[in-house]
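@channel sequence for tomorrow's demo:
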Amino acid sequence: MKIQYKRPCALVRGRSLDHAVRRALLSIFVAAAMPAAQAADAPSYGALLQQAQVNAPQLLEQAANVRAAAADARQAGARLNPSLNAVSENIGVSQAGVSQRENTYSVTQVFELGDKRAARIEAGQRRSLAAGALERQTRIGFANELAIAYATAEAMQQRQDVAKAELTRAGDDLRAADALVKAGREADLRLAQARASVAAAEAAAQTATAETTAALERLAAFVGATEAYTRIVHPFLGTVAARPASAGWTPADSPALATASAERDALAAQVRIEQKRWMPDVGVTLGMRKYGWTDDKAATVGISASIPLFDRNKGGIDATRERVTSAAMRVETARLDAVAAHRSAVAQVAASERSLQAAEQGEAAAGDAYRLGRIGYDAGKTSLLELLAIRRQLSDATERTIEARLARVRALAALSMAEGRTAFGEAP
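structure tokens (generated this afternoon):
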């Protein structure tokens, strides 16, 4: 007797199976759409990067640090303020009934010797340059981290789509198994296996939905968005263009090395301040003295200076020099790290390109295998176990392609960070 499988959902039992699968799919879609009332689709990576310049707390923090360092540099050039003094002497003393009180009013101006002000100005400028170098490093790192976060969210979303497709295919296999069991061409065990496969696919879809939501929430928080994102609608993973390594790259192009060098220079400028700190400042005082028993007045002139007898700031000078030595070692460490990171990133980019090509070929082969396996199963030539294994291989191959694309974005971001540029936009 020949049984032709057309639409098993026409069977009463098939209707219940269809209903179960549709209910599982509906629960996935409802779970994904729950936050939609207070959320929106994510902008493109480029638009998100532009918005982050004025919203991301990490970038705003560094911008504030740069402004503060610039203000400190301006303040470093300020001269010392004069001081006003008022002194009353011989209070309550009288001679022949005449008060002997004397009131002296004077202004004292302290003058810094030994180019103290120039050293202070230079140190302030060096610190401002160091803050600017750190901000540039932060902006480059932020742009590349944003690319990874954006690609990760899209990858999670694609995995969610794969899980939903897997659930749909599992439902199709379940309906086909039900029809074949009723026709006597499969044992009841096969139906139980198909149901278990549907349950596993539903659990995987729920997990993928939760992971997608978490990735989108992290993306929104990273850029300082006021509302959550529900979906990536601008493709990024499969559209990023590879950029070869810079032929003229040197370790000096590394943002981390530039920051370390600027911080070393700022500490070196601080040494000059410490070396001049012990030098005396000269205070010049000009005043007027009024005598209580007469209208006569007299001008006063005074000079004051500290005597560096006990403290010549040797400890402060030595401490600052040691900090410069420590900073120099950090510069050398950053130089070695920059060379190693660049070499590693170049190798990772090349490997990710090859892995992506292999993954895409494997996905195409797995798709053809599942198509042929499904045809064979419907024709009764392929067992359910074989079909489930082939379907699992297709899902695994698709996820490997997604992971390979994500690894490629990470490798390109690492290379761009090593070279001091953004991988998917203009250099800051």
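heads up for whoever presents: The CA atoms of residues 115 and 276 lie 8 Å apart.
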